[in-house]
Amino acid sequence: MSDPVSADPAPEVPARQLNRRVMGVALGLLGVLAITLGFLDYRAREREDVRTEMVAAATRGAVNLTTIDYERVDDDVQRILDSSTGVFRDDFEKRADSFKDAARKAQSKSVGTVAEAAVESVDGDQGRILVALTVMTSNRGVPEQGPRGWRTRIGVVKTDDGIKISQVEFVP
Fold first, then answer.
1. What would the pLDDT profile of 66-109 be if each residue is shown by its tens digit?
2. 8, 38, 84, 99: which has the highest count of C-beta atoms within 10 A?
3. Domain-located, residue 46
């Protein structure tokens, strides 16, 4: 007699062992997902922090540019220079003496306050910020003027010394 050919099926993996493998893979995927989401959240917060810092630098710079008192114009000009960089700073520094002379001669005082500010764009270490200001100005011999609204586009750049103004444009 011949032995019947035994067809032993492949050994079955117990359901419990299969469930553990599936659970291990699922937990691994959840871990990767959690790390990815955490990293994306970190990057989003970091970008938002940079945007907030850029708005703060632009509004500070706008106030510095519009708050000038002929009695302390040297300090006011230095504050503008300290908060600026690049070509804008160089140009302002070249004109600083004539600016101070004009402020003293007119006995000019102006105070700028920020009404609103918003990010127009950010590209790496550079940003463009829109700043709306109200400026009160008084000059010797000129009747008191009402507040004037100014809209500006301020370029800012991140430097080793912090975020500084690199460009100022008036927006119609």
1. 999 999 999 999 999 999 999 999 999 999 999 999 999 999 99
2. 84
3. no
Does residue 40 fall inside a structural domain?
Answer: no
Q: What is the C-alpha end-to-end distance of the chain, expressed in Å?
A: 106
What is the per-residue burial (b if ≥16 Cβ within 10 Å, else e) of 65-97?
bbbbebeebeebbebbeebbbeebbeebeeebe
Alpha carbon 168 to its chain's center: 16
Residue type, 16: R
Is residue 3 in a domain? no
Please give the C-alpha separations between residue 111 and each of 28, 32, 136, in angstroms, as whole numbers. 59, 54, 5
If you ran DSSP here, which 8-state letter would residue 142 be given? S
Q: Assess if residue 65 is contained within a domain.
A: yes
Tokens of 131: 């700043």
Which range of residues forms the domain containing residue 130? 55-170
Supply the CATH number for residue 111's domain.
Answer: 3.10.450.50
> What is the average pLDDT across 156-161?
96
Task: Count CB atoms within 10 A of the CB of residue 163.
Answer: 24
Model pLDDT for residues 27-44, shown as the tens digit of each residue: 888 888 888 888 787 787
Tally of domains in the chain: 1
